[in-house]
Design a protein that fits this description.
Elements (H helix, E strand, L loop, with lengths): L1 H20 L6 H27 L2 H14 L5 E2 L2 E9 L9 H16 L4 H8 L3 H4 L4 E6 L5 H9 L10 E3 L2 E11 L2 E2 L2 H25 L12 H10 L1
Antiparallel strand pairs: 1-6, 2-3, 2-5, 4-5
Length: 236
């Protein structure tokens, strides 16, 4: 909370004042550590100032849009379906054999085709606990996400409300209901804008920092005192 944060700041300030009274701030090793901390903070503040000046929001968005246009194939959605299912396991907690599971599945299929509510029957009978509480809803999925028999039956359904026959997978026996089909298509720029702006801003920040620091790393501009360098790391 803000109150705790304020209390922490006050405690640190009082302890720092006590350390100065004790002369700790005059210790050479402490002065060295304080200087390094100050240099790190000034470095970061300087970089942030350069970024605020150079990284124009409109320019970053133009870079994002240019990337979108140049790589449109990266922003295509595959065909997907949204389905619900009722799962009856063979064995499991109910101890059903396959014949018993199939008999119940057939009964439920008759009731569903007669117009009973799929979600209500899924909540009562489905042994996929994660989806049963949602009326059997599995959400959208593309090809390659489900086991082949389930996937083939789900994508074979054409109209919302269509029911599959009984589908057997390693998980048990399923009855599948199609909720919605989503065709393959191009994702609009507005949908991926935030992601592209973020990645392009990050890349631009990296380039800007390199443009500032790389010239300072040139051997002709660096003179390193090796004994002093060893002493620096020994005291860091």
């Amino acid at each position: 909370s803000r109150r705790n944060h304020a209390a922490d700041l006050l405690v640190r300030r009082q302890i720092a004042a006590r350390a100065r009274e004790q002369g700790l701030a005059d210790d050479p090793a402490v002065r060295h550590r304080l200087r390094l901390l100050q240099e790190r903070q000034l470095y970061e503040v300087s970089m942030q100032h350069a970024e605020a000046t150079a990284l124009d929001a409109a320019a970053i968005e133009r870079l994002a849009y240019d990337e979108y246009r140049a790589h449109r194939d990266r922003f295509v959605t595959a065909e997907a379906v949204r389905t619900s299912h009722i799962l009856l396991r063979v064995g499991g907690e109910q101890g059903r054999d396959r014949a018993q599971a199939e008999a119940l599945a057939r009964e439920l299929l008759v009731r569903l085709r007669a117009g009973e509510d799929f979600a209500a029957l899924a909540r009562e009978y489905s042994e996929d606990r994660g989806s049963a509480v949602k009326g059997g809803d599995l959400g959208f999925f593309e090809k390659g996400r489900m086991v082949p028999p389930f996937e083939q039956a789900a994508f074979a359904l054409r109209e919302p409300g269509d029911l599959s026959d009984i589908v057997e997978t390693p998980f048990g026996l399923h009855i599948i209901r199609l909720t919605e089909r989503r065709p393959a298509g191009q994702r609009p720029f507005e949908e991926v804008r935030d992601e592209l702006v973020a990645t392009n801003r990050l890349a631009a920040r990296k380039r800007l920092r390199q443009d500032i620091t790389d010239p300072l790393r040139e051997p002709t501009r660096l003179t390193i005192d090796e004994p002093a360098l060893e002493a620096l790391f020994a005291s860091d």
